Amino acid sequence: MQTLYMQEFQKIVGAENVLTGQEDLFCYSYDATPGYSHLPEAVIIPENVQQVSAILRLANQHEIPVYPRGSGTNLSAGCVPLKGGIVLLMNRFDHIIDVDLENLVVVTEPGVIVADLNNIAAKHGLIYPPDPGTVATATLGGTIAENAGGLRGLKYGVSKHYVMGLEVVLANGDILHTGGRNVKDVSGYDLTKLFTGSEGTLGVITQATLKLVPAPECKKSIMAVFKNLDNAGKTVAGIIAAKITPATLEIMDNATIRTVEDYAHVGLPLDAEAVLLIEVDGMPEVVAKEANEVLRVLKTNHADDIQVAQNDAERDKLWAARRAALPALAKLRPTTYVEDATVPRSKVPEFLREVSRIAKEFNVTIGTFGHAGDGNMHPTIVCDSRDLKEMESVKKAMNEIFLSAIKLGGTLSGEHGIGLGKLPWMEQQHGSKVMDAMKSIKRALDPNLILNPGKLVGEC
Ligand SMILES: Cc1cc2nc3c(=O)[nH]c(=O)nc-3n(C[C@H](O)[C@H](O)[C@H](O)COP(=O)(O)OP(=O)(O)OC[C@H]3O[C@@H](n4cnc5c(N)ncnc54)[C@H](O)[C@@H]3O)c2cc1C
């Protein structure tokens, strides 16, 4: 990048907010996704919307790529500055602007950490439901841009269900305001939903109006062990058929159970084919009724062991197994790929069996855990990225996993987004006409292709 442009950027945000040292550039060359890195030419840290607008106007004029970044915890290489240019770090946008208790909305800047919003909401008996495993580090901007979900997605949905309005800066520097505090708003195209989940490819989010909901008064957690995977599958279907929507309905497969037991010694039987963790929440009377119904479905479907938490300490103990799933798998080998292929929930047992077959066929280690209630699985491949031969097998296994999810009527991503990692299968899932429509939207809003180029829709 020419020194002249760098001086212009320094004028906009101050020299101290334009980082060009090699160590700084290295720190922003990668994110939480293994296997991708590229040095940017500068890291720019704006603090207000006018600065973002001026930066984008200049970048657009000179066709300099811009990569918005929150905390860099995404798992789809969404922040990797693949074509050099600028990393636009949004962490200084860290203010909550308004907590509106009459409308149950909050207006916030995108650099606020998800857990910080929830701590403020909790003081008012409210929650912001999207709860990725990274709540303590991920930013609201990153979660909105990825359309992130989490453990309670079955009942509460993902980020798009809570984003009511956005302030977005387009590639040409124009500042847009979409949506607002209206519960009902069908005026025009739903641009709020378009920018939510757009992974920094259509605009930079500088403010968001988010819906808060009342915190559940009471929760009940139940863990069930199954020696037979089909019985676990029938239980998931049975709970939904009984018209119960648990906040959480998680599953771990045998490979994950063995790894967790070895790591955390929580007492899981090594021959179990599946463990389900179920949590119902709401008013105490409803929770009691739903928990009883869940127990009935578990018994009907021959759960081999059932544990019900009677208090917070016991709830914590049940959750320990699920919490240990990712760290236990990650500890096995130096490199961890956490995927999030998603299938209709009725297909979860079939998908888990497919993943076990793929692991055997390609001789790679895969543990699968995830959100059985909404079919969002996390096949987790552990390997060593320095072993090129092993990586060939990992690539083949990944290809088979995504193809089998698509074949089962599923999708490439339930919550982690597409970024770079899942691009090769996008056309397979959506077909060429849908891809063309997505690319047209990209070209219309960002004709010089400066915003996170090469991601989500690929080259345009
Ligand atoms: C251990 C672990 C567990 C995880 N668990 C979950 C989980 O349970 N559920 C889940 O959904 N995800 C999960 N994730 C993935 C990740 O935490 C989420 O994708 C999160 O939303 C990323 O937030 P971030 O602030 O780190 O965003 P970043 O990684 O910085 O950015 C993510 C994307 O958003 C874009 N972006 C960032 N800020 C803006 C902005 N202001 N305007 C426009 N675009 C922007 C970036 O360009 C990038 O494409 C997990 C990740 C890890 C490492």
Automatic annotation (TrEMBL):
Report a single Gene Ontology molecular function. FAD binding
The FAD-binding PCMH-type domain is annotated at 36-215
Cofactor(s) this protein requires? FAD
Report any Pfam family annotated for this entry: FAD-oxidase_C
Does the record's keyword annotation contain Oxidoreductase?
A: yes
Alphabetical keyword list: FAD, Flavoprotein, Oxidoreductase
Task: State the coiled-coil residue ranges.
Answer: none
Q: Which family does it belong to?
A: Belongs to the FAD-binding oxidoreductase/transferase type 4 family.
Protein name from the UniProt record: Glycolate oxidase
Origin organism is Propionispira arboris
